[in-house]
């Protein structure tokens, strides 16, 4: 798996020429990001970081990841409707983690009032790494599932063409022709369009709830433009705009800036830092409304790391998906070892195990967006410090996945061209729509491969660590 491009990867002249072609191709294809220096401007932009070469991915594992995506959609949807499960699973977490607690409070508040929303739209991305066993065989292991603001479905739809061209320039037309087509932007837009249609008002628009700083705007525009092409109007608004311009009518229809909103698509709202008191109020207003939230607050909670850990307990999947033994087998086959650090004997034992052998594990708080996990010595230090305090409960522990590295070049604006030892993470996008109790759409919507140098333990593309990639199936 590591040796896909052995003949060219060390050919400095060929690599330099191909890199120049690659960067121009990325700009032409629209693989773009706003710059760190001018994050609010679209008149000076640069290419989003990407690999020079597509990375090898074992075909069987790629197919396995696609085959389990509808199961993950079903599972997330089932969890989001299971109040008892969410309550029990998050009970210990919300005692110590203020952010999860505040989300949970909104969740209970909207349930008490009674849901006005009757159409549900889920867009998620299940992320995996390829764990290399002692005998050299690789296994698919889920890293996490993102149920809110899963990004890069737009830019990755345009990255394949760039890699196809690079391979041709390197004399590999045959291999170039084998890169798979991939268009998550279209798949995600079709889910949003379905939800919009079921909401049932021609005048209503889709609202992208966006960040204050929108460096990744082009990724979002890919989906936005797909909607405009279907004659569905799109608004881009921040929480602050909703606070200032949003209101509900008597039947809890949502209006922002005078326009009725059918679907709220969150590309923001998953980190505590964005929420001041006004933004929490805006979030509550959105959740109380009749509009289709993608995701609704229950589905956001279903994507927490604590829920992921709980799912790995024997019997849990059977409770959540009764009568689906095949789906359960497919889901479970992707799980890595996950461990609870809740107070009590089990948690004590797990904490001691991790302190004794920190390199075997990753310590994860209830946070999203990269850069929050702890590894190695740092893991040991933090766990030593909190092992006898309730704070321990805000984390989960996970087996560390150890993929086989491969050589590649990470192309980044203003960075020298240099060879790196890299590992990749495969994400599969899923989209589903439910009306009342009836699931009307459930699909895998494309894939995303992100690659990073092995010297970084953590961090995604937005965090400046990983770069966009294209799978080359072996
Ligand atoms: P986030 O919500 O911050 O994206 P993740 O669980 O995806 O949290 O972790 C962030 C990154 O840390 C991943 O993209 C991956 O590179 C690394 N990582 C997470 N879990 C593991 C693991 N079990 N083994 C190895 N690396 C991991
Ligand atoms: Mg992640």
* CATH class call of the largest domain: Alpha Beta
Q: What are the bound molecules?
A: adenosine-5'-diphosphate, magnesium ion
Report the helical percentage.
25-40%
CATH superfamily of the largest domain: Glutathione synthase, substrate-binding domain superfamily, eukaryotic
Q: How many domains comprise the coordinates?
A: 2
Mean pLDDT: 97
Uncertain runs are none
Number of helices: 18
Rounded Rg: 22 Å
Structural class: alpha+beta
Q: Using the 3D structure, state the CATH architecture of the largest domain.
A: 3-Layer(aba) Sandwich
**Main sheet record:** 7 strands, antiparallel
Shape: globular
**Based on the structure, what is the oligomeric state of the protein chains?**
single chain
Strand content: 25-35%
CATH topology of the largest domain: Rossmann fold
* Strand tally: 21
List the helices and strands and how they pair.
Layout: H1 6-9, H2 12-29, E1 32-34, E2 45-47, E3 50-51, E4 55-57, H3 59-67, H4 69-80, H5 83-96, H6 98-113, E5 119-132, E6 138-146, H7 156-169, H8 173-176, H9 184-199, E7 205-209, H10 217-229, E8 234-237, H11 239-245, E9 246-248, E10 254-256, E11 259-266, H12 277-288, E12 292-294, H13 297-302, H14 305-311, H15 316-320, H16 325-332, E13 338-340, H17 345-356, E14 361-365, E15 374-375, H18 376-386, E16 395-399, E17 406-411, E18 419-435, E19 438-453, E20 467-469, E21 471-473
Parallel strand pairs: 4-21, 7-8, 7-11, 11-12
Antiparallel strand pairs: 1-2, 3-17, 5-6, 5-18, 9-10, 10-11, 13-16, 14-15, 14-16, 17-18, 18-19, 19-20
Helix pairs in contact: 2-7, 5-6, 6-12, 9-10, 11-12, 17-18
């Amino acid at each position: 798996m590591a040796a896909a491009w052995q003949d060219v990867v060390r050919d400095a002249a060929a690599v330099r020429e191909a890199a120049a072609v690659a960067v121009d191709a990325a700009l032409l294809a629209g693989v773009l990001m706003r710059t760190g220096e001018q994050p609010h401007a679209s008149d000076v932009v640069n290419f989003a970081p990407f690999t020079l070469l597509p990375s090898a991915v074992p075909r069987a594992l790629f197919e396995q990841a696609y085959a389990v995506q509808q199961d993950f959609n079903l599972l997330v949807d089932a969890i989001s409707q299971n109040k008892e499960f969410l309550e029990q699973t998050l009970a210990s977490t919300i005692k110590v983690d203020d952010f999860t607690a505040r989300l949970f409070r909104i969740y209970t508040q909207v349930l008490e009032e009674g849901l006005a929303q009757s159409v549900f739209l889920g867009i998620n991305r299940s992320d995996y790494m390829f764990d290399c066993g002692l005998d050299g065989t690789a296994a698919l292991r889920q890293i996490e599932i993102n149920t809110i603001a899963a990004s890069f479905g737009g830019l990755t739809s345009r990255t394949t063409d760039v890699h196809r061209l690079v391979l041709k320039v390197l004399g590999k037309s045959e291999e170039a022709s084998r890169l798979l087509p991939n268009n998550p932007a279209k798949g995600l837009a079709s889910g949003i369009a379905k939800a919009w249609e079921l909401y049932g008002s021609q005048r209503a628009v889709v609202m992208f709830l966006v960040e204050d700083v929108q460096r990744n705007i082009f990724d979002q525009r890919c989906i936005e433009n797909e909607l405009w092409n279907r004659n569905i109007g799109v608004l881009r608004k921040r929480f602050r705009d909703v606070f200032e311009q949003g209101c509900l009518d008597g039947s809890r229809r949502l209006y922002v800036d005078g326009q009725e909103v059918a679907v709220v698509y969150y590309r923001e709202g998953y980190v505590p830092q964005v929420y001041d008191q006004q933004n929490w109020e805006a979030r509550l207003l959105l959740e109380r409304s009749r509009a289709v939230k993608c995701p609704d607050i229950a589905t956001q909670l279903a994507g927490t790391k604590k829920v992921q850990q709980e799912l790995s307990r024997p019997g849990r999947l059977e409770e959540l998906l009764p009568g689906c033994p095949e789906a359960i087998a497919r889901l479970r086959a992707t799980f890595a070892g996950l461990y609870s650090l809740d107070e009590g004997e089990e948690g004590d034992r797990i904490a001691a195990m991790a302190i004794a052998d920190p390199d075997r594990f990753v310590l994860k708080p209830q946070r999203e967006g990269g850069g929050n996990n702890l590894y190695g010595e740092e893991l040991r230090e933090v766990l030593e410090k909190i092992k006898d305090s309730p704070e321990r409960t805000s984390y989960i522990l996970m087996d560390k996945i150890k993929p086989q590295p491969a050589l590649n070049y990470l192309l980044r604006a203003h960075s020298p061209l240099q060879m790196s030892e890299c590992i990749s993470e495969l994400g599969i996008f899923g989209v589903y729509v439910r009306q009342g109790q009836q699931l009307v759409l459930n699909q895998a919507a494309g894939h995303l491969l992100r690659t990073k140098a092995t010297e970084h333990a953590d961090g995604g593309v937005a965090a400046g660590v990983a770069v966009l990639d294209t799978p080359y199936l072996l």
